[in-house]
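This follows on from our talk about sequence and fold. Please put the record directly below this note.
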Amino acid sequence: MVTTLHEQALFADGPIWGGRHRLTAGVEPHTHDFLEIAIVGPGGGRHVTSAGERPLRHGDAIVVRPGAWHAFRDCADLTVANCCLSEHALRAELYQLPALRRLLWTDPVASGARGVAVRSLDPPDADEAIAQIELLERDLESGRRPGRTLGRLITVLGILTDGTDRGGPEDAGLEAAVHPAVAATIARLEAAPSAPWRLDELAEAVNLDPAYLGRLFRRYLGLSPLGFLARVRAERAASLLVNSALPVARIGASVGWDDPTYFARRFRSLVGLTPTEYRRRNRSGPAGP
C-alpha cells in the first residue's frame, strides 16, 4: 500500500519543511504532492522505487518529484534527512540555475527515472547537508527565523549542486539563466496544461522556429516542450487522483488527456502505475520520511 504525504498538512507554516530521522526498520511506500530531497547518512538499508530496488549508501541524495513514490527497506540505524519543497517553492525561479534544473527537474524526469533520481555526494558533504537540515528543522520549530530557514535551504541545494554538477559534457555551453523563450513557454504550459498545445503553436508564441525551441528545451531542461507538458500533466493528475473523488477519465480530460486509454498509458510511463492503481494505493494517511 502506497500512502501519501500532503502539502497542506506539512507546509502549514511556509513552503519549506525539513527533518532528520534515524530509521531502524523500513518505511512503507509513500508518495507526495510536493518535492522531497532525502540525504542519506551512515547506516544501512535499501531504497525502493517503481524502477526497482538498490542498496543505500552514505552520501546518496534522492530527489522525488510530486506524484512519484519510494520506500526504505531493511534499515539498520540509518540516518536520513529530508528537505521538502512545496509546489509554490518549485516555481520557475528554480529554473534559472542549470544545476538546479538538472537536480530538481531533468534528472528525476529523464527516461526511465519515473520521477525519482539518486545522485552520490561525498560522505562529508552529505553530513554537512544533513547538519543544515537539522538546523532548518530547529528554525522551523522556533517559528521566528524565516530568513535563516531560507538560508539553510539554499545551503543544502548548494551542497547538492556542487556535489552532483561535475561539469560533464551535457553542461557544455549552458548559460547562467534560462533562455527567455523557454521561461515564457514554461509559464504558458504550467498556466494551462490541459490546452491542446502543439509545438508549432508554442514556437510561434515566442517567435522561434519549432525545431529551435525544441533544442532550447532539451538544452535547458533535458526534455522537449511536449515532454515537459506531459510531466506537468502527470503531476497534476496525481494530485487530483489522491485529493479528489473525480472519476479517473474525468481527471485525465481535466489535464488534457481526453482518451482514457492514452491517459493510463502516459501516466504509467511517467509515474510507474496506472491512474487506477495510483489512486487505489493512495487512500491511507501520511507515513514516514
